[in-house]
Amino acid sequence: MPMYQVKPICGGEIKTDLPTCMYKLPNIHAQQGNSCTSEHALQNGDVDPAVRALEARQDEIMRKLYELKAAVEGLAKTVTTPDADLDLTVSSSLSPQSTTAFKGITDLNTVLGKDLGALRDIVINANPAQPPLTLLVLHSLLCQRYRVLSTVHVHSSVSGVPPQLLSCLGPRHADSYARQLFQLGFTLIWKDVPKLEMKFSVQNMCPIQGEANVARFLFKLLAPYPSDPALATLVDNWVDTAFFQLAEGSTKERAAVLRALNSALGRNPWLAGPEFSLADVACYCCVLQSGSASSAPANVQRWIKSCENLGHFGPAKLLLK
């Protein structure tokens, strides 16, 4: 069946006159090489200088972004901080240099691994009810050896931290935003934990618990343990005695330790012989924290003054005032 037909509305072919006032564009397909390039060309084939400057700026931005990406990837490989729920950043400091020296100096890469181009962070969780005095002394010694970026935080599980604990690592450093200027990060987090805990890299090592064990680790960043097994055992014995008998022992145990200290210091200026060691740091802090300093024997009193003359025990002493 044939379809119906519609008559034309207007007959004939309509011709439209195009305006002559419109501008004409050159045919881009007719340029040299008969191809389109990524550069914006002018009508005469030259590239606009402003476009060239914009492209150069974009290349520079991309280069900096790639550098930043590499730094972030290096940091991610080096440190993992599990305590991300921090409430308050309190202070960041670079302690001044001092004159205490050790005969054997430890290379930072030897203990913490090869530097991957990022700041190595040591994160320590401590209970404000039991301030770790040895860590404050070792922090001061670390600042003598390395450029240390120190920060204090308060965890959400803790409230009402005393002001002296918030500023125990010193005032904020002016260059704290530039982490690449420092060698070591020392982060102290006041947190409700049963035991002091240190986390350096959860990918490569287990967390270290206990103030004595953390002190041993930090001291190894300053000087190696004595190569003589007997001397190394003597240092470990004094460290254990300090934390288990002076800090946590009974009155009789503390009195016995003070007598042993007095006897040992009558033969040598320091507890492990002629050289200052971790044994002196641990025993000094525990004597101070136990309140036995004022009633200590004569040799112990002299040794306490010798420790304080080094200049690194000031933060620990101020914390108890």
Account of the 3D structure:
The chain is of the alpha/beta class. It is 39% helix and 11% strand. It contains 10 helices and 6 strands. The protein has helices at residues 49-78, 108-112, 133-145, 163-166, 211-220, 229-246, 251-265, 278-290, 298-309, 314-319, and strands at residues 86-93, 120-126, 148-155, 184-190, 197-199, 208-209. A 6-stranded mixed β-sheet has the order 1-3-4-2-5-6, with helices on one face. Strand 3 (148-155), helix 4 (163-166) and strand 4 form a beta-alpha-beta unit. Helix 3 (133-145) runs antiparallel to helix 8, helix 6 (229-246) packs parallel to helix 8 (278-290) and helix 7 packs across helix 9 (298-309). The longest helix is centred in the N-terminal third of the chain and has 30 residues, at 49-78. It is elongated, with a radius of gyration of 35 Å. Residues 33-39 and 77-99 have low confidence and may be disordered.
Give a short synopsis of this structure.
This protein is an alpha/beta fold. Helices cover 39% and strands 11% of the residues. The longest helix has 30 residues, at 49-78.
Mean pLDDT score, rounded? 77
Taken as a percent bin, the fraction of beta residues is 5-15%
The beta-strand count equals 6
Roughly how many Å is the radius of gyration?
35 Å
In the predicted model, the low-confidence regions spanning at least 5 consecutive residues are 33-39, 77-99
Number of helices: 10
Topology pattern, helix = H, strand = E: HEHEHEHEEEHHHHHH
Largest sheet: 6 strands, mixed
State the distance separating the first and last CA atoms.
111 Å
Shape: elongated
Report the oligomer: single chain
State the strand order across the main sheet.
Answer: 1-3-4-2-5-6
